[in-house]
Design goal:
This protein has 443 residues and is of the alpha/beta class. Helices cover 45% and strands 12% of the residues. The active site is at 108, 111.
Length: 443
């Protein structure tokens, strides 16, 4: 197995500051599109994206998969002492993030330091690392985009956390979320994420679904109220996922989450963190999920990755599909961007990507793809008839009876009378191929 780090103090030796060098550069360790100071649609790229490095995948993922063990060894994992090991990992993380020039990071509690089964000891460990992280943030200028608690990996959560049929398990989840919220607040985290990794069911035969969803809502209210009492001003995010590990998760997709939040009076405090790979697992496109969230006013944040179309599970590969992201950035720009969140690279290098530089290549490529897609989307909106084509499709609702219908002024009898008066409608093209070609032309 290859060693991803070299040396005792500098973990990524031989790799300096990653800079923007433009389209003429052949340097694989440089940005070609992501110029953080470039202004697009009134904001710099840095402001649009608020790029964030995922602590878990970048510094915890070891290359293992369901069919094989680790392929990556990390120098920061060598110590047998929990805190020493955690500090070494944090040193490597901030070295990487700083060299990459990313403004943010995000984490699960158990990414930062290993947890055991003692709640008080876990809290002590996390508090120790919070103090260490404060120093690292102050030294580097890197900020915390959001924190969260991993209440899905431990065996106690095999039947869920806040939806677990055993109240004792739910109480453990509460203790863990409290500590994660405290850590996020202490580190100036701008948001907090809830991902219900096992908040769902394996079979309805032993599940009271109504009661479990009510417990989930009560848990979110309880956590939200606690955070607000501690002075937290940020946004809470729900991250939808349809399945894996549970057969059916209660946060299946954006539409499901929006209905849940509305039903349980949570829309005022919660928005949605959309993951590309989760969207496709739900049978949607990333663009679809962005549009659903944007239309409901809850487009909060994005987990940037992609899936493997042949695999059918959450492969968390780095984003590189320019057509997909250009279509997504059209929605992004029309919605006015993200509300509170940023673009988090919730992605991991491949099992056979074992060189230190591979982690840099992955993030550089992801940032460049997002930047190029946003620039392309802005050009489409500014320099083509893209918006006009769509507007013309709905022109019949902009005046006359169509407008009266939208205003709620027509009855069903009125509709019948209008249909008889006008006769059979003309067939009108949706011009799909034209629009697809238009996007390719600007790319």
């Amino acid at each position: 197995m290859a060693n991803l780090t070299i040396g005792d103090k500098e973990f990524f030796k031989g790799i300096g500051q990653i800079k923007f060098e433009g389209l003429e550069s052949d340097n694989p360790l440089a940005y070609r599109w992501y110029d953080e100071n470039r202004v697009v649609a009134g904001k710099t790229l840095k402001e649009h994206f608020k790029f964030s490095v995922a602590y878990w995948h970048s510094f915890n993922a070891n290359g293992s998969d369901p069919f094989g063990g680790p392929t990556l060894n990390f120098a920061w994992d060598e110590s047998s002492d929990v805190i020493t090991r955690a500090k070494a990992k944090m040193d490597s993380a901030f070295e990487f993030i700083t060299k990459l020039g990313m403004p943010y990071y995000c984490f699960h509690d158990v990414d930062v330091v290993d947890y055991g089964n003692d709640i008080v000891e876990n809290e002590r460990r996390l508090q120790t690392m919070v103090e260490y992280a404060k120093q690292k943030q102050a030294q580097s200028g890197v900020k915390l985009l959001w924190g969260t608690a991993n209440v899905f990996s431990h065996q106690r959560y095999m039947n869920g956390a806040s939806t677990n049929p055993d109240f004792q398990v739910l109480s453990h989840a509460g203790a863990q979320v409290k500590a994660a919220l405290d850590a996020t607040i202490a580190l100036g985290g701008e948001n907090y994420v809830f991902w219900g990794g096992r908040e769902g069911y394996m079979t309805l035969l032993n599940t009271n679904m109504k009661r479990e969803q009510e417990h989930l809502a009560r848990f979110l209210h309880t956590a939200k109220d606690y955070a607000r009492q501690q002075g937290f001003k940020g946004t809470f995010f729900i991250e939808p996922k349809p399945m894996e590990p549970t057969k059916h998760q209660y946060d299946y997709d954006c539409a499901t989450v929006i209905g849940f939040l509305r039903q349980h009076d949570l829309l005022g405090d919660f928005k949605i963190n959309i993951e590309v790979n989760h969207a496709t697992l739900a049978g949607h496109t990333f663009q679809h999920e962005l549009q659903v969230a944007a239309d409901a006013g809850v487009l909060g944040s994005v987990d940037a990755n992609r899936g493997d179309y042949q695999n059918g599970w959450d492969t968390d590969q780095f984003p590189n599909n320019l057509n997909e992201l250009t279509e997504a950035m059209l929605i992004f720009l029309e919605a006015g961007g993200l509300q509170g969140g940023g673009v988090n690279f919730d992605a991991k290098i491949r099992r056979n990507s074992t060189d230190p530089a591979d982690l840099f290549y992955a993030h550089i490529g992801g940032a460049d793809t997002f930047a190029r897609a946003l620039i392309t989307a802005d050009n489409i909106l500014q320099k083509s008839d893209f918006l006009k084509v769509r507007e013309e499709r709905y022109a019949s609702f902009d005046g006359g009876k169509g407008k009266e219908y939208e205003q709620g002024k027509l009855t069903l009898e009125d509709l019948r009378a209008f249909a008889i008066e006008k006769g059979e409608p003309a067939v009108k093209s949706g011009r799909q191929e034209y629009l697809e070609n238009l996007i390719n032309r600007f790319i």
